[in-house]
Amino acid sequence: MTGTTIPNVQKAARKATITLEEPLQRGDSQITSVEVRRPGAGELRGLKLVEVLNMDVTALATLLPRITNPTLTSGDVAALDAADLLQFGMETAAFFMTREQATAQGYPTA
Predict the structure, then answer these.
(1) Tens digit of pLDDT for each residue in 80-91?
(2) Please, are residues 56 and 64 in contact by the beta-carbon 8 Å criterion?
(3) CB 18: neighbour CB atoms within 10 A?
(4) Residue 100 contacts by C-beta under 8 Å, 6 or more apart in sequence?
(5) Does position 42 have pLDDT exceeding 90, yes or no?
(6) β-strand 68-69 against 15-26: which pairing, if any?
(7) pLDDT tens for each residue of 7-20
(8) 84/12 Cα distance (integer angstroms)
(9) What is the C-alpha to C-alpha distance for residues 101 and 110, in angstroms, rounded to an integer?
(10) Lower CB count within 10 Å: N or C terminus of the chain?
(11) 3-state DSSP call for residue 19?
(12) Three-state SS string across 53-106, please?
C-alpha cells in the first residue's frame, strides 16, 4: 500500500463564538459567550444529521455539550433563550457547509 498525498486546502471554519443575548448563570459566575466548534464524526454518534441540520432541539441538546467551551450541560441548553438556541443551531448547521457554500453565505473559511 502506498501513501497518499493530501493537498493543502483551506478548511471551513472550525469554531465560532456566540455572545448570549441572555447570559446563563452557573453558580456565582455568568456565562456571556460560548465557543462552539465543528463536530467530528464521533461527536455526532447517536444523532441523525438531518435532525442536527433542522436544528431539532433534542439533537442540539445532545450535541452542544460535546462541542462547546465552556461545556454547556443539557440543563444549560434547556435554559437557553430561544434567540440564543437559534444562534447555536445556525452556527452548528453552518459547520456542515462546503468551503464554497460557506464563502457564498459569507461565513469565514480560514
Answers:
(1) 999 999 999 999
(2) no
(3) 16
(4) none
(5) yes
(6) unpaired
(7) 444 454 689 999 99
(8) 23
(9) 14
(10) N
(11) strand
(12) HCCCHHHHHHHHHHHEECCCCHHHHHHCCHHHHHHHHHHHHHCCCCHHHHHHHC
Dihedral (CA of 64, 68, 74, 76) sign: negative
Measured between alpha carbons, how far is 96 from 82 in angstroms, rounded to an integer? 22
pTM of the model: 0.81
Which of helix, strand or coil describes residue 10? coil
Cell match 446563563: residue?
A: 24
Cell numbers describing residue 22: 441572555
Radius of gyration for the alpha carbons in the chain, expressed in angstroms and rounded: 16
Q: What per-residue string of b and e applies to 60-88 under the rule 16 or more CB within 10 Å gives b?
A: bbbbbbbbbeeebeeebbeebeeebbebb
With cell 459566575, the residue in question is 29
**15 DSSP β-pair partners:** 37
